[in-house]
Amino acid sequence: MLYLMLLIILIVISFSFVILVGAPYLPSFSYQIEIALSLLELKPGDTVLDLGCGDGKFLRIAAKQGLKVIGYEINPILYLVSWLSTRRYGDNVKVIFGNYWSKTLPPAEAIFVFLLPKFMTKLDAKISKYQYRPVKLVTFAFKVPIRKFIKSKDNVFLYQY
Ligand SMILES: C[S@@+](CC[C@H](N)C(=O)[O-])C[C@H]1O[C@@H](n2cnc3c(N)ncnc32)[C@H](O)[C@@H]1O
Q1: Each residue's pLDDT tens digit, 58-98
Q2: Above 90 in pLDDT, residue 4?
């Protein structure tokens, strides 16, 4: 009984505290990820980062297209789900546990995010300082304030930094 209670508490904490540092878990639909990838126009072998990779859906779809993908996830349960569900893609998919705000992002051609509006200005500041620019950013659902997107389709917005 005690273990069950502890497990429930762990699950509740894992899924709720995240709203302090980013968007809560809400997976994109596959077709929205396909749109994001088509806007990005990447070549096989290019690298794309998913900041807050949830259950790893974006990672799996991008890896199937021949891309290298690195996902960041702060929720330990979702980190495990992402990690386990992407093992079959070997070195083409890496899942990193932790808070992406405090990480130095590795070289990549593109970055994907599904974030809340209140974090978009902070995201803009982080990508503006990203040391491997030029980089493309695709955001799902919410725009980056004060920055003009270069293309958009069905609520997916493409930016160039
Ligand atoms: C809206 S979901 C998007 C999931 C996935 N990218 C997709 O589109 O299907 C946001 C995810 O980001 C994770 N997250 C939020 N803030 C984070 C942070 N600061 N560092 C790492 N992961 C974070 C959440 O746990 C959640 O799984």
Answers
A1: 999 999 999 999 999 999 999 999 999 999 999 999 999 99
A2: no
Ligand 1 atom with least separation from CA of 78: 27
Q: Which amino acid type is present at position 93?
A: V
**Which single residue is written with the structure tokens 């508490």?**
9
Whole domain around residue 102: which residue ranges? 33-160
Find the helix or strand (DSSP H, E) in which 100 lies: none
Among 23, 37, 42, 3, smallest CA distance to 100 is for 23
Beta bridge partners of 156: 140, 153
The number of domains in the chain is 1
Specify the DSSP class assigned to residue 99.
-
* 37 C-beta closer than 6 A to ligand 1: no
> Which CATH number is 131's domain given?
3.40.50.150
What pLDDT was estimated at residue 38? 98
The rounded Å distance from CA 78 to ligand 1 centre is: 9
